[in-house]
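Researcher: Next entry in the queue.
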Amino acid sequence: MGARESLQVAIYHQEAVIAQALLNTTFPPQNLRLPNLPTGEYRYKALLYLDGNATGLVVGEAEGYLLVQATQTTVIPLTMQATQGRITLAPFEPFLTVGQTVPLTATIRNPDGAVVLMPPGQMTWSVEYAPDVAGVSATGLVTALAPGYAIIDAGNTNADPMTSSTVVTVAGQPVGTRGRIVFTKEASGFAIPNTDIFIINADGTGLRQLTDNPANDDMPDITADGQLVVFTSDRDGREALYRMRSDGTQLQRLAAPSFAGGSGRISPDGRYVAYTGGVAGGVSQLFRLDLQSGQEVQLTRGTAASHDASFSPNGTRLLFVTDSASAQQLYTMGIDGSDVRQLTSGTQVIRYLAPTYSPDGMRIAFSGPNMPSVLMTINAGDGSDLRQVYMPPGGGFVGAPAFSPDGQTILLPFAPNGHGPPLSKYSYLYRVDAQTGAADIWLPRVSSASWSRQGESKKRPSSLEGRGLGVRSPLHLCLAQHLAMKKETGAGDGGDD
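Model: Structure for this entry, 497 residues:
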């Protein structure tokens, strides 16, 4: 403040008001001089208002007792107590790119929610966590220094001290110029560990939160044109598939009665969603939902569990994992469940977590084997040429990969040892060069992501056409793996009849 406010003072003697005064003052008033008070005992109360007419919001108060032993001028020391109840910071949980700045504003509110303004110099700012990620000035200006997240504290210095904190998320430089990226992020601070879905352009612009509720919204998949998002949520008490527009509107629960958790993967033409479902006997199988007719079809019926389906770039085949007695294997089949072909073989223990095609259909990327897990690729045609693309330093849990539209970059969720799964505030979304394996952190506190091709498919721009490279949360991947292992002993048959 520091401007002219008004101070209303009342003097009480034997509970009767014997004098009142309305003074203009500068906050905070230091003392009050009362001339010619007769000998006696008095009580006083002073209220500080923001305006000059003693109306509106009370921002401070002081009261006490006086003992006057002779008629004289009495000086009352005014120790003003602020009437606020909490500090709120804006913007809430700001999102920055390295090099950007944002001014934080601290607003003090009294217990009924009314705003209480503080004078200059009575608010302090500090970095509680990760000063190498973000810094803050004495006036609340935050500067993004490196990818990661930092915690910024604000506190007042008056007689009723309080503090408040906010998380600042810092992204690395943009990962590309094409497409939109939808991702899962812890959105409600650290006290409530729920996740929500966000969307951002590959060039770092257009960040928007799409869901906001106490449930866990997770594992989003976005269509090629970037207009439709399919995701999982437990908002209705059990995990189910949902879809919405990429602006967060037109939310709809999908009628997929056999859905057993994990994520839904969208076909290139936007008509189908493939997912893992449960059947009698507890063996996981693959299902397909027609988004136009609402019809659900079971695609695999083998004695071994099948899971982690992904469409080929041309939409004619499905890539999936089947468990055998000795090791997991990769298979492909037609989108109607016919023409099953085994892609990998052998007894090498490899966990094919969330396999996905490169946009040109030449390579398959997946996360494996176990702990520490790494990013690996193989030839899509025959399963040969197994390559380790990237192993994060120090080891940890690698989530499901997502290719960029040109296939040159792979987004890869990762949680260091001791922090995953599940991935949340301790996880990072790396960008990895698909050829060289060079990697750096792009986003913190992200557990899954999907990258659209945005407009490459022009045949039916108003339809649900497109392929999103869905990425499953490592928590759900781990659970899916656990469920998939509940199978009868025997060689995987690829899910055919």
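Model: The chain has three domains: 4-82, 86-170, 174-484.
Researcher: Noted, moving on.
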